[in-house]
Amino acid sequence: MTPQEKTLYHQIHPLKLCTDICAEVVSLYLFWKRKLIAGFVVLLVPPIIASTLIIKWVDLEAYKQSAFGRYLRAYMTPTVVAVRLLGTIVTHVGAWYRRPVLIPLGFMIVLLAWLRGILWPKRTEEREEAEIRTRQSSE
């Protein structure tokens, strides 16, 4: 498996998802309490450690072959990753400025980015082209 594939598929490993969600929630609390450095440390360090360990030590082939892996391959583009990041920024700005409405809005942005392929699926031609490109890049 290539480093690019590992970087893609590690995102759906349960440890990575759990780490990201927990880090998000705890860091939001710290941002709300105006503990900026601690908030950034919690937001960034555990997910980076989890990513590094998973990419280095975990066999992600089963995730690649799964339905979720195929979904990720087709729909988790750099643009979608940027939208997910935007959602995280919105939640943390909401926590820092104590604007509660921004926190669920940011979560919705992240959720919509993850669900992009379900809510707005690619046309069949685009899907086939994406799969061909993926196969060619993995060879």
Computed Rg = 16 Å
Strand content: under 5%
Number of helices: 9
Ends apart, CA distance between termini: 10 Å
- Tell me about the largest β-sheet: none
Query: Helix-strand pattern, N to C?
Result: HHHHHHHHH
Q: Count the beta strands.
A: 0
Q: Give the overall average pLDDT.
A: 93
The level of helicity is over 70%
**Could you list the spans in which at least 5 consecutive residues all have pLDDT below 50?**
none
- What does the overall shape look like? flat
- The structural class is mainly alpha
Polypeptide structure, described:
The structure is a single chain. The chain has 139 residues and is mostly helical. The chain is 81% helix and 0% strand. Helix 2 (14-32) packs antiparallel against helix 3 (36-57) and helix 6 runs antiparallel to helix 7 (102-114). It is flat and about 50 Å long.
Question: Topology, pairings included?
Answer:
Elements: H1 3-9, H2 14-32, H3 36-57, H4 61-65, H5 67-75, H6 78-96, H7 102-114, H8 116-119, H9 124-138
Helix pairs in contact: 2-3, 2-6, 6-7
Features:
139 residues
Short description:
By secondary structure, this protein is mainly alpha-helical. The protein has 9 helices and no strands. It has helices at 3-9, 14-32, 36-57, 61-65, 67-75, 78-96, 102-114, 116-119, 124-138.
